[in-house]
TrEMBL record:
GO terms for molecular function: DNA binding; DNA topoisomerase type II (double strand cut, ATP-hydrolyzing) activity. One of its GO terms (biological process) is meiotic DNA double-strand break processing. It comes from the Eukaryota. This is Type II DNA topoisomerase VI subunit. Keywords: Isomerase. Residues 13-159 form the Topoisomerase 6 subunit A/Spo11 TOPRIM domain. CDD domains: TOPRIM_TopoIIB_SPO. InterPro entries: Spo11/TopoVI_A, Spo11/TopoVI_A_sf, TOPRIM_Topo6A/Spo11. SUPFAM superfamilies: DNA topoisomerase IV, alpha subunit.
Length: 178
């Protein structure tokens, strides 16, 4: 990917979305016009091009970056890939990380706000492995959420929720007015 230059930007923040279905719903709802944001899709685990683009965009526009991911154990790996880099490709980490990304949700502490089904999938082994990772040492709030998740037998897939409503709730929770 070659370098690029942002000429003008009136967005207030960048929203990185994990899944294409959720991203498509946000685009269809024209969220970027309602809240002046830049939408980026990671397609699950983000590739190097997406991480490079996000890092360079963030440096140029100097606005907050928020991540919106499913409430399952894999959100930690996804967000840490953005913030710390991939465990598998540390060779170019400096050009591929966005350390300031903030996790919007959906968080385990948000689960009571939505009507969700119990999930028979046992995530305890995955959660146990993730909670031992060094990259969580400086992310106390993420660790707290992982501990809550380890006690929950529910998970939240973003595509099952109303996109606009969820985004409004999580933005209000952090003090952003819709």
């Amino acid at each position: 990917m070659s370098d690029f230059e942002v000429v003008a930007c009136r967005a207030k923040f960048i929203l990185v979305v994990e899944k294409e279905a959720y991203y498509s719903s946000l685009v269809e709802d024209e969220i970027n016009k309602k809240v002046d944001c830049i939408l980026i899709i990671g397609h699950g685990m983000p590739d190097m091009a997406t991480r490079y683009f996000l890092q360079h965009l963030t440096k140029q526009v100097n606005i907050p970056v928020f991540g919106l991911v499913d409430c399952d154990p894999f959100w930690v790996s996804i967000l840490c890939t953005y913030t710390c880099g991939s465990e598998n490709s540390v060779f170019d980490c400096d050009n591929l990380v966005t350390p300031g990304i903030k996790w919007l949700g959906v968080r385990p502490s948000d689960l009571d706000k939505y009507v969700l089904m119990s999930d028979p999938f046992d995530e305890s082994k995955i959660l146990e492995r993730l909670m031992k990772k060094d990259f969580l040492n400086d992310k106390a709030s993420w660790m707290e959420e992982l501990e809550k998740k380890s006690k929950e037998m529910r998970r939240c897939d973003l595509v099952l929720l109303n996109c606009e409503t969820v985004l409004q709730k999580v933005l209000r929770r952090i003090g952003w007015v819709w």
